[in-house]
Amino acid sequence: MKRPVLHTRQLRRRARLCQPQRIDPFVVRPATWSDAGLLVEFNRALARETEGLELEPDVLARGVRAALADPAKGEYRICEFDGAACASLLITREWSDWRCGWAWWIQSVYVAPAARRRGTYRALHTSVLNDARRCGAKAVRLYVERSNAAAQRTYERVGMARSHYELFEVGDSLHP
User: From 3.40.630.30, 3.30.870.10, 3.40.50.300, 3.90.220.20, which CATH number describes the 8-12+19-162 domain?
Assistant: First the structure.
């Protein structure tokens, strides 16, 4: 069986799925280059708030720009209220050989404090589910810090359930 070849243009077309969606009273839209600074700040705030980490700004900025430049790495979404950005998340994709399809991962979820408990995350989540269904994704997943009970309740309220999987990783030890 000959393996199909996907060209860069096809990968980019598949990865650029988010079109602006009005989910009253919010607008969820794809992030652009002009959002890079905002995404860096949101991610720094997320790491500080959820894990007590101070991320290296230059490394984080390079990571954000890399995803903005290459949709195959991920797709950021911005949620706006009255024209001002109030939340963001990143979608990455993982191939599932068991399901012969894509699992979408929601990552780097940040909702500004003033926008919490107002349906902001629900708007972002609805946008992701709309596109995941349209594109035939097999699952939408996310991981959350064990101690972040408020976020866990939010995810349960939008219909997500705990998985039977545990997450393992090798991180810092890769580069001693």
Answer: 3.40.630.30
